């Protein structure tokens, strides 16, 4: 973009539709303009922040007309918090846009014939659907422009979420509509207790401060795990905080803490201390139990995860005599979920701790026909692996947002499993992989699933069959 364009204001831009990643688009002098935090049908003035020869990006600075599809956002933090960016769009339309996203990406990137994309499976819960939230303590509370201009003194301690694109600024959350149970109470009482007791909130630039992070995990079986991360090893204060939580919230079934003096908040390499209760919580699905440790991954919308897994199992069309590969198996949830309908299931995943959980989950459910291996998919899924194990009849693959490594896709083409079920949280990379798989596979079914209402994210399941 020429420097001249930066900060230029385009007036009366009609927002036409939603594009990928939740941004909306309009057109100005033949160029596409991407705008965030607007809705199709809005007419806005846009200040240009970035652009290339073929497109521009900008922010809405004045609204002339509001879309008729807008609704009143329910959360007081909407607009500042990055969590639920689509609250201003009604849920039916959110679902339409999500399905459209899948169609757009498939037409633009995959360029393979596709059948009718099924209507998206909506989430029954559009609020309080997450089972895990991660809050950060900070002594750099985000202040609104009005607060700054008021020249009043504000307490700068906060417990909440990072402001998008500002790593050191935290929005103090009063109520979050994403997680139910005791989540809001735990966060707010802990903040109050910390303020009353003058405990220090973490300073991310200086890397000092006692209270650093709070993770709350809930289950549909009413269990709650709370993990507090401390930035300093001050045993007296740690005990004070943990005793407070234990006393105040007897329904916490797993109360843990970790001392983290590293440069980042990840704790997969640190030792967690179980202060009270059990070191895990358990989720249930069709009578199967899934044990979730503090370091384990579990799909964040449990109810929709069940719907997603049912679609995956349905697309796999198992009769009982198949060998199934469950690639990117995480803690083996899909593998264990389909095990009863298969002869054998082999799960592969690179996080070793997740593979340990996967094995444990088979064990506690009395499942004996699963095998799990840890390793990077592109290295582990090689000729030797294939010759040691039976060839798969069905491959279920659920890669991260980046999709599958090309080497893995090439391996799938060599394996020629009659059926591939491709579960994806990013239709763009899924479409890219389908373009390659199109050499030997045809797309038979496409089922988008909404795991994250109020956001632009969409999960998509595709059934591929080997061309005859
Ligand atoms: C979207 S999650 C799927 C989780 C699982 N299927 C479930 O439903 O719980 C993707 C998984 O892929 C794993 N992963 C990412 N990159 C990988 C790689 N290169 N090799 C093996 N596993 C990988 C991640 O650790 C994560 O568990």
Automatic annotation (TrEMBL):
Question: Which keywords are on file for this protein?
Answer: Methyltransferase, S-adenosyl-L-methionine, Transferase
Which residues are the active-site ones? 425
- What InterPro entries does this protein map onto? MeTrfase_TrmA_AS (IPR030390), MeTrfase_TrmA_CS (IPR030391), NA-bd_OB-fold (IPR012340), SAM-dependent_MTases_sf (IPR029063), TRAM_dom (IPR002792), U5_MeTrfase_fam (IPR010280)
Q: Record's CDD domains?
A: AdoMet_MTases
Top-rank taxon, per record: Bacteria
- Residues annotated as domain TRAM: 3-62
Specify whether Methyltransferase is a keyword of the entry.
Answer: yes
Q: Which residues bind S-adenosyl-L-methionine?
A: 299, 328, 349, 398
The UniProt entry, under NCBIfam families, shows: rumA
Q: Which family does it belong to?
A: Belongs to the class I-like SAM-binding methyltransferase superfamily. RNA M5U methyltransferase family.
- What's the protein name? 23S rRNA (Uracil(1939)-C(5))-methyltransferase RlmD
């Amino acid at each position: 973009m020429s420097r001249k364009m930066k900060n230029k204001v385009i007036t009366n831009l009609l927002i036409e539709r939603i594009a990928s990643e939740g941004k909306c688009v309009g057109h100005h002098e033949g160029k596409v303009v991407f705008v965030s935090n607007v809705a199709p049908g809005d007419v806005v003035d846009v200040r240009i922040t970035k652009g290339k020869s073929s497109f521009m990006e900008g922010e809405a600075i004045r609204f002339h007309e509001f879309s008729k599809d807008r609704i009143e956002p329910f959360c007081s933090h909407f607009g500042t918090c990055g969590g639920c960016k689509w609250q201003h769009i009604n849920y039916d339309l959110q679902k339409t846009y999500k399905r459209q996203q899948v169609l757009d990406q498939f037409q633009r990137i995959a360029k393979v014939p596709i059948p009718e994309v099924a209507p998206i499976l909506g989430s029954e819960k559009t609020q309080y659907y997450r089972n895990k939230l991660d809050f950060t303590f900070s002594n750099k509370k985000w202040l609104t422009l009005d607060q700054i201009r008021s020249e009043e003194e504000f307490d700068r301690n906060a417990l909440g979420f990072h402001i998008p694109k500002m790593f050191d600024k935290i929005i103090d959350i009063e109520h979050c509509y994403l997680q139910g149970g005791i989540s809001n109470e735990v966060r707010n009482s802990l903040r109050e207790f910390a303020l009353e007791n003058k405990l220090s909130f973490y300073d991310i630039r200086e890397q000092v401060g006692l209270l650093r992070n709070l993770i709350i995990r809930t289950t549909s079986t009413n269990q709650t795990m709370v993990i507090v991360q401390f930035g300093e090893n001050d045993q007296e204060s740690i005990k004070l905080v943990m005793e407070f939580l234990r006393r105040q919230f007897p329904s916490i079934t797993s109360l843990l803490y970790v001392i983290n003096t590293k440069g980042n908040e990840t704790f997969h390499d640190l030792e967690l201390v179980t202060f009270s209760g059990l070191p895990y919580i358990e989720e249930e699905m069709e009578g199967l139990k899934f044990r979730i440790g503090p370091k384990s991954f579990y799909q964040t919308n449990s109810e929709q995860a069940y719907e997603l897994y049912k679609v995956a199992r349905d697309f796999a069309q198992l009769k009982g005599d198949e060998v199934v590969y469950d690639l990117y198996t995480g803690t083996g949830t899909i593998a264990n979920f389909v095990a009863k309908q298969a002869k054998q299931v082999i799960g592969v995943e690179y996080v070793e701790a997740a593979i340990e959980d996967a094995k444990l989950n088979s064990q506690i459910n009395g499942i004996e026909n699963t095998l799990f291996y840890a390793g990077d998919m592109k290295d582990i899924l090689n000729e030797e692996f294939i010759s040691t194990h039976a060839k798969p009849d069905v491959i279920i693959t659920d890669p991260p947002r980046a999709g599958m490594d090309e080497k893995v896709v090439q391996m799938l083409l060599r394996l020629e499993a009659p059926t591939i079920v491709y579960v994806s949280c990013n239709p763009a990379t899924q479409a890219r992989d389908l373009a390659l798989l199109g050499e030997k596979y045809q797309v038979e079914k496409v089922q988008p699933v909404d795991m994250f209402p109020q956001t632009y994210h969409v999960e998509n399941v595709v059934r591929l069959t080997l061309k005859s």
